[in-house]
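[job 0412] stage=complex_fold ligand=phosphoenolpyruvate status=START
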Amino acid sequence: MDKKNRNALIAGNWKMNMLASQVPAYWQGLEPGAKLGEGVSSALCVPFPLIPAVKAALAGSQVKVGAQDVSSHDKGAYTGEVSAAMLADLGVDYCIIGHSERRAYHAESDELVNEKLKALLGAGITPIMCCGESLEQRDAGVTLSFVESQIKGGLAGISAEDMKKVVIAYEPIWAIGTGRTATAEQAQEVCGYIRGVLAGLYGQELAKGVQVLYGGSMNGKNAAELLAQPDIDGGLIGGASLKPEFADIIGAANEG
Ligand code: PEP
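[job 0412] stage=complex_fold status=DONE, emitting structure tokens
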């Protein structure tokens, strides 16, 4: 299986933006361009309280709804937490885990990301597991070894069968929300390396089937070049997913 046989995924990450009351107008602006070509999937990963409104707006569209985090616990005395079963019950299909903002502001470790990943798989939700280096790590030349450790930590104990249901997103921290996109070569180098790490863990054939996304200031202008790279199967998009421009990225995937 090569890139031609892997589906593309264009996933938006709204972060802590938008109100439920703004969703209908947002969708009116996006919908005309949000037509998915063959082999292209898309999802909007939105704040928990907005899930029902987004789900309602997207009814009849092929664009799916995702969340941005999940509890590692099943249920019980975990005030403020949201379980994978609760997300599944709302019809959530995807969930981001291990985003660098959660690692930075909520001290999320690879071990916790691994527990969250298992919770999502148990509930039938596709995890989008993020990894990526800081600028200091890139400058120190440890990008590949650091990303490898995140991948191996996050996937600890995950069977080959379950790995087929996991999406990986490479997001260099220095490119997130900064307008400074990784060059297509930089993004391809790390995404290709990630596929190699997956091949070491699960074998070539399985690794060739895993969707590896790039995230970090992807927009309507740079998407086509990034998505043309052999190991980049889609994007995780923050800022641009809040605007009708998100449809241009879907369009670039449709043409890829
Ligand atoms: C993100 O938050 O996952 C992201 C990639 O953000 P942005 O596109 O704004 O850089």
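The radius of gyration is 17 Å.
[job 0412] exit 0
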